[in-house]
Amino acid sequence: MSEGFKVEMPYKTVIVANGTFPSCSRALDFLRHAGHIICCDGAVSKLTAAGFSPSVVVGDLDSLSPDERQRWSDRLHPDYSTEYNDLQKALKYAITQQMDNIVLLGCAGGREDHFIANLSIMASYGDRLNLMMVTDNGFFRSIRKTTTLPAVPGQQVSVFAKEETLPLTFHDLKYPVSHRCFRHLWEGSLNETTKNAFTIEMHGEGVVVVYQTWI
Questions:
Q1: Edge-first strand listing for the sheet containing 131-134
Q2: How far are the Cα atoms of 14, 61, 108, 177 from residue 32, in angstroms, in the given order?
Q3: Helices 112-125 and 86-96, interaxial angle, to 10°?
Q4: Using CA atoms, how far apart are residues 96 and 88, in angstroms rounded to an integer?
Q5: How confident is the model at residue 26 (pLDDT cuts 50, 70, 90)?
Q6: What is the pLDDT of residues 173-210, one digit of tens each?
Q7: In what order do the strands lie in the sheet with 197-202?
Q8: Contact 59/89 with Cβ under 8 angstroms?
Q9: Which pLDDT score, from 0 to 100, does residue 213 have?
Q10: Other C-beta atoms lying within 10 Å of the C-beta of residue 27
Q11: 3-state class of 188 per DSSP?
């Protein structure tokens, strides 16, 4: 993706999970311009090593060193629930603070099962929050209504529908579909843009996760 391509959404809250910390400038730009940085406790050392400070640290806090506990003592938000992982705890905190338009960083890399779980969590919370998960290779966005997204011709796109009964129509993608329901996650993957924007038309209610590569 050329450096001129920008994601035109007001993402002012960033959640940093304990996966691979981003290295590409476009991912780091979200941290540089963040109004709030919610950091999962296991990612605090990665965040501070990159030169950023958390607004709040969320989790069971068992990953923090004694020095980190003291340094961020006024920003700790403990959540000892065993039902939720740290990304869910961070999202639940964001909801209590009435935050929206949230970028998720550090959700990929490391164990593949963690990434799959995090992507599923994104889809689950996408019915109440505008979320974007950013990696060094691309970004996922949750949408809840017919949406036109900016693109670059030739950009790779995949579409994942949470609901099997939600008909979708793709406009301005290399492989268009009309009023199609996707029974399997792979069915809407590996598409490609043909113009400077494309539209995912939703013929009903639900959550769709759209992936675009950086090229």
A1: 76-78, 56-59, 36-40, 13-16, 102-105, 131-134, 138-143, 208-213, 156-161, 191-192
A2: 10, 25, 20, 38
A3: 20
A4: 12
A5: confident
A6: 999 999 999 999 899 999 999 999 999 999 999 999 99
A7: 147-150, 197-202, 168-171
A8: yes
A9: 95
A10: 20
A11: helix
* Tokens 């003291």 belong to residue: 70
Strands (E) across the chain are located at: 13-16, 36-40, 56-59, 76-78, 102-105, 131-134, 138-143, 147-150, 156-161, 168-171, 191-192, 197-202, 208-213
Q: Residue 25 corresponds to which tokens in the numbers above?
A: 């400038």
User: Residue 182 gets which letter from DSSP?
Assistant: -
Per residue in 40-86, pLDDT (tens digit) is: 999 999 999 999 999 999 999 988 999 999 999 999 999 998 889 99
Give φ, ψ of 37 to 5 degrees: -120, 110
| pLDDT on residue 2 | 41
Identity of residue 211: Y
Helix or strand holding residue 123 (H, E): helix 112-125
CA distance 4 to 81: 42
Count of beta carbons in the 10 Å neighbourhood of residue 77: 16
Burial class (CB in 10 A: 0-12, 13-18, 19+), 23: exposed
In this structure, what token pair is assigned to residue 84? 């939720």
Q: What is the identity of the amino acid at 60?
A: D
Tokens representing residue 161 in the block: 């529908």
